[in-house]
Amino acid sequence: MLPSIDLRIANIVKSLEQVVLPALGPRERLAKDQIGLCIGHLRMIGEQWRWAAAFEGGSFDAMVALAEAMLPSVDPFYVEELAAAIEAGKAVDKRDLAAVEHGILVLGGLIDRIILGEDGKVALAPAARDAVLAYGAAQSIRERTWFAATGLDPDGQDLPDIPAMMVS
Length: 168
Known about the structure:
The protein is an all-alpha fold. The chain has helices at residues 5-23, 29-48, 52-70, 76-91, 97-120, 126-146, 162-167.
């Protein structure tokens, strides 16, 4: 029987804490700091891994919805390319994490180009700007929740946990 991912992560953390860290001398401060960062990331990955594909899929769905909201008001130069990207995004198999990540990269890059408006030469329409701001507000909650385990968010206590976020 194979050990679960949770058990494997816990064993790596235990090894780092109980074997590697104590073996480092007092002058190995940088190495100790790096081990601490690794331990923190492993613990965060332990909280996230079950939800990773669903999180990325939900983020991609939100990005496709943003593109759809922007479509009626983008500069005509982008309409055909954005419409094609929306259709391609809808066809992505959400169970294929690599395909979802690629879709986020491609569609996100196009949306960024539209927002930037060819280096500021093409203004973003107010309706598109409003869609971007609404998307950003919702996505920032998702991302802050996703990384809440870092303890760096000053309002982290107000965030939902990952399972609650995934069903909202």
